[in-house]
Structures are given as C-alpha cells and as structure tokens.
Design a protein that fits this description.
The protein is α+β, with helices and mostly antiparallel strands. It has two domains: 103 residues, 2-Layer Sandwich (Alpha-Beta Plaits), CATH 3.30.70; 48 residues, Roll (SH3 type barrels). The chain contains three helices and 15 strands. The strands form four sheets. Strands 1, 2, 5, 6 and 9 form a five-stranded antiparallel beta sheet that branches. A five-stranded antiparallel beta sheet has the order 14-13-12-11-15, with no helix packed on it. The longest helix has 10 residues. The termini are far apart.
Length: 164
Amino acid sequence: MKSWYAVNTKAHCEAFACASLDRLGVEVFLPILKEQKVLRGYRHSTTSPLFPRYLFAKFEVPSQLRAVTYARGVKNIVTFGGGPSMVDESIIHAIRSQTTNGVIEISEDRFSPGQIVRIQGGPLCGLEAVFEKKLDGTSRAVLLLKAMSFQARVILESQYVANL
C-alpha cells in the first residue's frame, strides 16, 4: 500500500527531485510559498518551497524505496527508528487545503499597525495585543502585549494572530 513520506533533497534541487520522482511514477507534493519581498527598494513577488530541501512522495516501500532513494536530486528519505517515517495523510490534506494550484500565498496586508488582535496559539493563546508591524522576509509579527498594566513587545508567527 502506498503511503506518504518526507524526502530530503539536495540544496536547491526540490523541483529537480520532484521531476525525477514524477518520471518514476511516484506521486509527489511540493508545496510552494509565494510572498512579496522588498529587494533594492522594489517590491517583488518571489516563490520558494514551503519546506526548503524537502518534498512529500507517496510510494510503496518494498517496491519503490530504492528507486526513490537514488532518484536524481534526492539526498535521503526521512527516517525514524531505522525505517522511513510515514507522513499522515491528514497532514498532506491540511497543507493542500491551504494551497491554490500547489501555491500558498501569504497576504501582506492582513493587519494594519495599531489594530487590536487576538493570539490564537502558543503560550500566549487568548491574549489581546496591538499589531505593530510585520517583520520583513519572515512570517512573524511584532505585537504590543498588554496585560494587567504591563506592556511588552513580543514577536510571534503570524499564523497565531487573528483579527478581533
């Protein structure tokens, strides 16, 4: 039975490994992240793998493990305890549900400075904060946290922040 596995690729060879595995008849999923970056004062749209140097491949271990391991662009298959470690189908489905044609696009303008937001995950879950700014080149946000007459600046992953 075919299962999903995480495949470690050689540096900057994710698309090359994806094509190699596709030629072998292996189902491959390479989620791509599209974001806006400022380079030399100009805003550019860039794409890169969501998980640099990794992709997901669905194959049968007994019959296809060797072919996948030695495919061009592949470094190795992620293993735990001596054998390839399966990736649950629900994880693949969750990532795919966030994509449009295999691309995940991060909206730059989700929040505006001064906006009141709620933290949705992590140790500060449930607290309200004031959005200050998004950090360039990352998915992190700087928030001003107010708690019992104490104010602190925190940096969190944007995925844990929601509008009120």
